[in-house]
Design brief:
18% strand, binds guanosine-5'-diphosphate, single chain, metal-binding, 455 residues
Length: 455
Amino acid sequence: MAETIVALATPPGAGGIAVVRLSGEDALAVAAKVFFPHNAAKKVENAKGYTALYGNFMVNGKPLDDGVALFFRAPHSYTGEDVAELSCHGGPVVAQSLIDACIAAGARPAGPGEYTRRAFLNGRIDLTQAEAVMSLIGAAGRQGAALARTALDGALAKRIEGFKQQLVALAGHIAAWVDFPEEDVPALEPEALSATLGEVKAGLSDLIRNFGAGAVLREGVDAAIVGSPNVGKSTLLNLLAGFDRAIVTPIAGTTRDVVEQAVMLGGVRVTLRDTAGLRDTGDVVEAEGIRRSRRAMEEAGLVLAVFDGSAPLTEEDKQLAAVCAGRPAIAIVNKSDLPQQFDPAAIAGSFSEIVTLAAGRGEGAELLGEAVRRVLGVANLDPSAPCLVSQRQYAAACEGRAALEEAENALAGGFGLDAVSVCVDDALSALCRLTGEDASDAVVEEVFSTFCVGK
Ligand code: GDP
């Protein structure tokens, strides 16, 4: 077992309780130097796994706090090592004093992600689950957390394992057929070969396709609210925020800088950016605001293009619609409470979603939420289905799929089974990289460097 590490497992700051976690060969020996059970007959060093003791935390012979110590015995712990979790009262001073006492007693401070790294190195979890821990901690919404939770339960690893087994069986069969012609290996029908390649490729394509939508649920999306002056952009922002975040006046050009507000829209965390109305202006400040709003629009993962339903279509409206074509964008035809002069059909070619609402009356947020889910592709995403949760996993899945495509091409081009076999091996090593089976130290280093200390 590795040397003993210590860190705060709960968030820093004041709280009901704080948990200081020790893991490693001497976890219980270190705990025994700082924690003294009330029942003097109980010895910390002899504590069994999954048991708790009540007692005092002592620093330099002086009582610091009273609390509970929880023990786990290798390999039945998060890290797979001996673990002691010391729960003291949640104040930064108490917890830090306890950590200092553990260090004085022989532990060393844990590095970022070191607990999860040990869990990985000890075979408790695979790399996809390790990344899911990080994803779960950082999840932006309930559904994003559900997705990360699914990965943490190993659903992705199981799905990839299934693909690997199919490819290993295929590679084995090809090798036997090619290398041992004298043995009675049944011939590999090209149809069966191509069916397996196609099946695994389709499975990987599913994961790859849902990666973007999963990322939207986990991390949220930046949305730019754009449109001509006075169409109701700020009113819409205020409606979605639930309070008066932006200044609303009937004077065109009121919003000059970009106003930002995060809201939940259709279950997605959307960071709204209300921008200066797009129009030609001689005002230097307004012109700079318009420049920024164009940039916000280019950088946005979602564009909410607002039009005034009570006014006829303008030249600016047409330009805006043209810029939105082919992007994740929703047309919002506002002021539906007034007599309508705007013809939504005129912009229908540029938007897959057109929502008619009256932001000024506080109406339409729900309809907009549904449109957001459809445009971002999360409407049909099943949070219990396996999902890639990091860019690294996504890249590995893409490499695996590309190698399978090459295998298909080799087969179709009549290049022989040797060539197919090389491509299948490439696909297999991409999938192994995905779950971290032959992950190089550099990959492991990269994954765990994004963790916070204490995880
Ligand atoms: P922005 O310049 O695009 O941000 O527009 P504002 O949000 O400042 O709104 C411009 C004017 O339109 C204000 O006087 C609002 O009260 C009015 N307005 C906004 N939404 C509606 C609506 O749904 N119906 C009506 N009748 N007026 C609205």
